[in-house]
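Retro notes (design track)

What went well: tokenization of the new backbones is finally stable.
What didn't: we kept losing track of which sequence belonged to which structure.
Fix going forward: every design gets posted as structure first, then sequence, in one message. First example under the new rule, 109 residues:
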């Protein structure tokens, strides 16, 4: 059985003049919103020296990803980002999930 968990990696770099406000919002509001999304089991965060905020959110399994991202809690969390649209220099969201080898099939005629 495979125990690999898919995860979402978020990188957000606010403009210098918004950095302190954004970092406080990210830690105090955003991460708490993400905790409420069903299927997310691990949340890690940090920042780079250049001020980029990092969020790493692990899902329970590949089976729950679509439901988690389609949940009302995830929709709410996404909606709170709109206030920062003009304050970010970069926002990158990546989904990482395993890709297993497909079985090989032979054709016999």
């Amino acid at each position: 059985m495979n125990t690999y968990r898919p995860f979402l990696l978020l990188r957000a770099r606010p403009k210098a003049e918004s950095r302190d406000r954004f970092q406080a919002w990210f830690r105090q509001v955003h991460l708490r919103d993400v905790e409420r999304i069903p299927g997310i089991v691990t949340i890690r965060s940090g920042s780079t020296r250049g001020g980029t905020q990092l969020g790493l959110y692990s899902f329970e399994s590949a089976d729950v990803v679509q439901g988690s991202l389609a949940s009302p809690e995830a929709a709410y969390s996404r909606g709170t980002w709109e206030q920062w649209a003009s304050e970010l220099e970069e926002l990158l969201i990546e989904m990482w999930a395993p890709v297993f080898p497909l079985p090989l099939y032979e054709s016999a005629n």
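Added context from the reviewer: The longest strand covers residues 88-96.
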